[in-house]
Design brief:
By secondary structure, this protein is an alpha+beta fold. It has 15 helices and 30 strands. Among the domains are: about 5-90, Alpha-Beta Plaits (2-Layer Sandwich); about 110-240, Rhodanese-like domain (Oxidized Rhodanese, domain 1, 3-Layer(aba) Sandwich), CATH 3.40.250; about 300-375, RNA-binding S4 domain (Structural Genomics Hypothetical 15.5 Kd Protein In mrcA-pckA Intergenic Region, Chain A, Roll), CATH 3.10.290. It starts with a strand and ends in a 7-residue tail after the last strand. A hairpin with a 2-residue loop joins strand 27 (about 510-515) and strand 28. Helix 10 (about 270-290) crosses helix 13 (about 415-425). The protein is elongated.
Length: about 600
Amino acid sequence: MSILNVAAYHFHSLDELQDRRGELQKICFDLGLKGTILLSREGVNLFIAGAREGVEKVLGVIRSFPGFSGILVKESETEYQPFNRMLVKIKKEIIPVGCTGIDPDPVASPKLAPRELKQWLDEGRPVALLDTRNDYEVALGTFHGAIDLNLKTFREFPSAAAALPEEVRKQPVVMFCTGGIRCEKIGPYMKGLGFENIYQLEGGILKYFEECAQEHYQGECFVFDQRVAVDPSLAPTDVYECFACKHVLTVEECSSPKYKEGVSCPHCYKDPTESMKDRIALRQSKLTAIASSQPGCVAYENRRWISVPQQCEGMRLLDALQTIYPPYTTEQWLDAIRNGEITSPASTKTQWRTERVDAQQVVCAGERFLQTIPNYSEPAIDPDIQLLHEDDAIVVVHKGAPLPLHPSGRYHKNSLEWMLHEAYFPEKLRPAHRIDAMTTGLVVFTRKFKFASALQPQFANGEVEKTYLAWIAGVPSWASTRCELPIAEVSLPNGGRQIDPNGQSAITEIRCVRSEANRTLVEVEPKTGRTHQIRLHLATLGHPIIGDPLYGDERNRDGSEPMMLHAWRLSFTHPLSAQRVTFQAEREAFR
């Protein structure tokens, strides 16, 4: 069965856009039509294809709109459906122009019938033919001797037309495009530029093909569907289009290794390294803006869930809250409960709500409570976040300090994970490992669950080679050493850990790089991944990390200054390529 393809547009004031969109959308889907219909206050523009009966029904609906009975339609037929889907959209303009205040006016640029233009050209009358289409359309075919404005997009037309020489403005000018809509929109603008005799080709190239075949025209006509181009008989031609850059392609170009459908072609291909740099630059700009705004420092209502762990089974709610989050005092938790800031979820078949709680009620493991903190403001962080690498599987980031990895404790929006989620929205990146808020350096995120499943176990199983830099207090008596002191599993009240003969095994290798002013720069390789392992081992050896608020530096108890620990280098097996890769931050950035 042949498919009827129609293209039509009409400029006329149109109202009730939402209702008309809904009506057309339903009819098109019910009739199995595909294509695009654009509705705006200035009129209608459409390209649809399907069975003739269905297409005629849609055209009948549009002709019933006040002022649209005379809409002109151009038809052609194919043996296949040239569109992938059906879209009915409301737009500000049905054809965008690069300047405001342009309204169609048939008086400004009268329409010239195709047969009349052919007669002018047959007679050799002096006339300038102005092609208003984009460069990739012109490359496929145009009238002999036509003026090509080399437009990348139609928004460039106003400035390009204004630059035409004065002699062109004095002679008859006939504008043309695919179907006529662009020329009709810009007629008044051209008149305003001083073009004394400006015409538009009625129905565009497609109408000219219908009536005059290929006379005075060389090549084919680009169309905006899967046909890509039609010849003067309006039959599809054997050409292809790059859907990334819109360039028309030959069969040979489609066989090029640089051609990847929907991604690139020989005309727009970029080396993967350059493409990655471009993507990172755009994402870096967005991330820098987010981080610099310190989003958590602007007061907001902070809502977070509190889950009761197994160790708090059977406790009073007040005792459980104090156990879960020791920094809050008992009085602070009591105030939060009295003020209704701690609630319990309750739901029925028809609604979800929360209920107030009692400090003395007994809780069960797995039970959840909602804490709502009004006018919450988080501590400031170091907004220095640099994207070092991005591919289909992972993102590698260099972070400053203080900057927590996860939303936790006092931080939610001022966390690396939250800000990356904003920069990559709707994609949600997953951290493949942990790093302290006070530590600067490399963090690896995965982009999909399957990549996380391949990379996270490498960190857990000690298969990732990690090298840190640290400035430690004093000058060690050794050039290198290996610390194997086991570390307790349970945190201290202040969140720290301690050495415990019965604790988890922990191995850290340390090598001195240089010493100056009673401090030493060391390279550290943790062979296991215990919480605070490097910090605790160095402190136990008598050389705590400078700026460490938990294990040695009394001057930095509030954590306002960065700790001199830097995640410098990471080596692991890439979850996509299965090849060993290494990422390294600049060493000079850590002094």
